[in-house]
Amino acid sequence: MFDRKCKITFIAHGATIHSEENRVSKNDNYPPINEAGEEEIQKICEWLKNRAIKNDRIYTSPALRTTQSAQMISKVFKKDFEVLEGLSPKSPGLKDNGETEEEFNKRISKIIKKVVNDNIGNRIIIVTHPDVIQSAVASAIKLPAKYRTNIYIKTGSATQISYFETWASLIYSDYVPL
Q1: Of 146, 136, 144, which is closest to residue 168 (Cα–Cα)?
Q2: Could you give the residue ranges of the DSSP H alpha helices within the chain?
Q3: Structurally, how many domains does the chain consist of?
Q4: What is the pLDDT of residue 51?
Q5: For the chain, does the N or the C end have fewer beta carbons within 10 angstroms?
Q6: CATH number assigned to the domain comprising residue 157
């Protein structure tokens, strides 16, 4: 009846020293995930294993905190991950190459569309930043860009979206395994 193009499970990277303060970092190499972040991703890994989540590919942003998280997840599936530059978080501010909400959402929508079109029929895991996942959810449910930050995505959480030819379905959002 409905022909799904692609299913993506988004995993928010593990916590860092900035997570509790909700601080944004422009630096891809800092901060790394901390002990709490490692525990979050270990729980996600167990959950992925127990749910028998299938996947064909794993993508991640280039930031250290996401690649550390992706390394842990890739061990569960015994497969490598691919780094996608466009999955980086929103550039803060409007000066010094900052992005508007609209620019950020367009960038994320473009890369997600490419991932979907390059992976027809596949199940994908994308390990990335909470704001990237907010943008993907906002796009899936057709929420205007200015409301993206109303969607809460915690570090170490899972969000799943199924993509169809002309629409997308949010399956679950911000799930944190116990």
Answers
A1: 136
A2: 35-50, 64-77, 101-118, 130-140
A3: 1
A4: 86
A5: N
A6: 3.40.50.1240
